Amino acid sequence: MLGRIRNALLLVTLLAGVTSAGMGLHPSSARAYHTYEERLLDTTAYSLQRRRVRLGLMNLSYGILDQLQVTTYTMPWLLGMIFQDVAPNLELKSTFYDRQRLALSVSAAFLTGTILQTDDSKVRYFLMPISLAGSVRINSDVSVHLGTRFTAVTGGADAQSGGDQIEGGLVIDFMQLYGMAEWRLSRVVAFTFTLRWVPYVSDAIVNGSLSGTNPTADLRLAVATDDLKNAFAVIPGFVFSWDRANIRLGVGYSSYFVDGFYLVLPGGVLHNVSPEFDVFVRF
Q: Which residues partner with 265 through β-bridges?
């Protein structure tokens, strides 16, 4: 099944590439996403202008002020409802410098939630990512975007095991570096090539206690995170834009970087397929 899904994704990306090549030879004069004022937002230093709105499958954004946007990701909310609890998340992004060919931004976010188990045990989590990004406009068609994100993850668990009560906490930190080259083939089509890499992941430190025994036992474990160390992804893709509707489509190799959760799934989980997909409107 996963093999068929991977082959289908590769076929769709190939067809999108052929289509974009043809469309790039016939630029549209209609209002489109790929103009000097309208820029890509994801994996770049750009943000929405004042009172602009972006509504998409993966996230919802609003421009509070010029070059300051607030975003919430949809996947944590959906998964939160599935696991019987909401997962509130919010991200503030500011393009504090945007002159001629260079733009710089900083963003900070939080994500929190609780996973309820059938035996009334609970797993709580809290993530706080901080990002810096820079975008360079080489010319009207080509741009390069670079960034780094540091994410601090904390969590806790309450569980019952027989007559014992188990309580514990988890701490893990990791850093991600990313870069994206953007080539605007026309006002409707842009080709993107994204690289992601995790150069640093701390071991997961687990502190806990086991009550119900006499005396209460204290636990401290260091769990190795070797599967995440040096995780990377190489993702070619395309962004198609019309009057208001936009589609982002790509498929790459190796680990999957989960938008909204700011985490990484090791490559083996999806057989080294790293998809990229979003449908959104801007107005």
A: 256
The SS3 assignment for 277 reads: strand
Neighbouring residues of 230: CB distance < 8 A, sequence distance ≥ 6: 197, 198, 199
Is the backbone of residue 166 left (phi > 0), alpha (psi -120 to 50) or beta? beta
Let me know if 278 is exposed, middle or buried by CB neighbors in 10 A (0-12, 13-18, 19+).
middle
pTM: 0.81
Please tell me the distance from the alpha carbon of residue 184 to that of residue 207, in angstroms, as a whole number: 50
Q: Decide if 103 contacts 97 (C-beta within 8 A).
A: yes
Give the ranges where the chain is alpha helix by DSSP (H): 2-24, 74-82
Residue 56 pairs with which residues in a beta bridge?
A: 280
Rounded-to-integer distance, Cα 274 and Cα 265, Å: 9
Three-class SS state of 183:
strand
- pLDDT tens for the 283 residues of the chain, in order: 445 544 544 444 444 444 444 444 444 434 446 677 788 999 999 999 999 999 999 999 999 998 899 999 998 888 877 766 778 999 999 999 999 899 999 999 999 988 776 666 777 889 999 999 999 999 989 999 999 999 999 988 776 655 556 677 778 899 999 999 999 998 899 999 999 999 999 988 777 666 655 556 666 666 678 888 899 999 999 999 988 899 999 999 999 998 888 889 998 888 999 999 999 999 8
